[in-house]
Amino acid sequence: MPTRVHEFAWPDRVVVGTIGLPGARTFYLQVRAGTQIVTVALEKEQSALLAEKIDEILDQLITVEGNPFSVPTGTPVELVDNDQLEAVEEQFRTGAMSLGWDPTTAQIVLEAFPITDADADADADADANDEDGANETEMLLVRMPVGTARAFAKRTREIVGAGRPTCPLCGYPIDADGHICTLPEV
Q1: Mean pLDDT on 64-76
Q2: Global pTM value
């Protein structure tokens, strides 16, 4: 079964954005190079962890003597991207992700794979669809320069943090129409 790779070596734009209201938002990772745009859905927790791990890698690289990869400590102003997502056409819902570093190009490497369905019925359908290529698997491969990666992590943290406020009593999100810990007693 062939794997279709959506590869972006030097993307013009790579961002996490959302559609919907806090509490009902869908998170998307969107990458664009020229006219090619790929959008994949991901969970809020995946988005938060992705930003955290990118910052960890960049912070570790800064400690290399002489900072040979010119890793910025903060987000370069010229790379700040606060624009909305472009036209969203979901390619797949992200399951597994991997994150790495390529010292030859000084880029963060992100791989996103679709959620796999281990259902036996899906396997039977896969055999039937394999003949016409309808069951092609896919993945997203993005290589981000260090400045772009720093800006990506900052924006992603802001997007994740823009959701519902957290209840100081229980730590769960507070909905717009109230919360069990803060609702007035009847």
Answers
A1: 89
A2: 0.81
